[in-house]
Amino acid sequence: MRIIPAIDIIDGKCVRLSKGDYNTKKIYNENPLEIAKQYEAHGIEHLHLVDLDGAKASHIVNHKVLETIATKTTLKIDFGGGLKTDEDLRIAFESGAGQITGGSIAVKQPEVFKSWLSKFGADKIILGADAHNEKIAISGWLEESDEELIPFVEKYLNEGVSYVICTDIAKDGMLEGPSFELYQKMLERLKGVKLIASGGISKFEELPKLAELGCEGTIIGKAIYEHKISLKQLEDFISGSH
Length: 242
Description:
Layout: E1 2-10, E2 13-18, E3 21-29, H1 32-41, E4 46-51, H2 52-57, H3 63-72, E5 76-80, H4 86-94, E6 99-102, H5 104-108, H6 110-120, E7 125-132, E8 135-138, E9 143-148, H7 149-157, E10 163-168, H8 180-189, E11 194-198, H9 206-213, E12 217-220, H10 222-225, H11 231-239
Parallel strand pairs: 1-4, 1-12, 4-5, 5-6, 6-7, 7-10, 10-11, 11-12
Antiparallel strand pairs: 1-2, 2-3, 7-8, 8-9
Helix pairs in contact: 1-3
């Protein structure tokens, strides 16, 4: 299972929110590159970079941060937050993203999202399925849609998507543990999905459990910043000596 730390960016700085609420912003580092280099030094190969300004503005904003991390580390970066147009994707990929995540757009403009799968390749496009009570939530979680999570993901698996990040909003940033039951249900019902767990990871013991369920990756945010999970533990997990 891939370990994918998250760096969320507002004004070029590394922050975390609770449950997606911008009013809960906490700045952890003025310099995201520093944090990315620490991850790299501990054997981490992947990074989930979220442009929170972009999510609010509905277009890419912090691509310079992406470019800096991509050129100064070897991390494989998936980038998301407000990507709406082919031009946004072009900028993201040119700035060094290996993959991009599309969330709200897959709900609101499915034709655009589907066109990205054929234009850029399905392996480069991650479906961001943010859920609340097993319903899809959109627009930085400000709205709940009527879409049921599992049928929604299934529809896109049939379109060629394989990577899916599922965040249970109720858990995100709360350090209360991830949605094991939800992920188990998804993995049982959605054949062939590469499911990336996100939200609520709070202690190291949860990681082997997610791996056992069959998650392809897990995104860890606040637990690292709040020193609930150490980079050493992650390094050992990655090198297989846990």
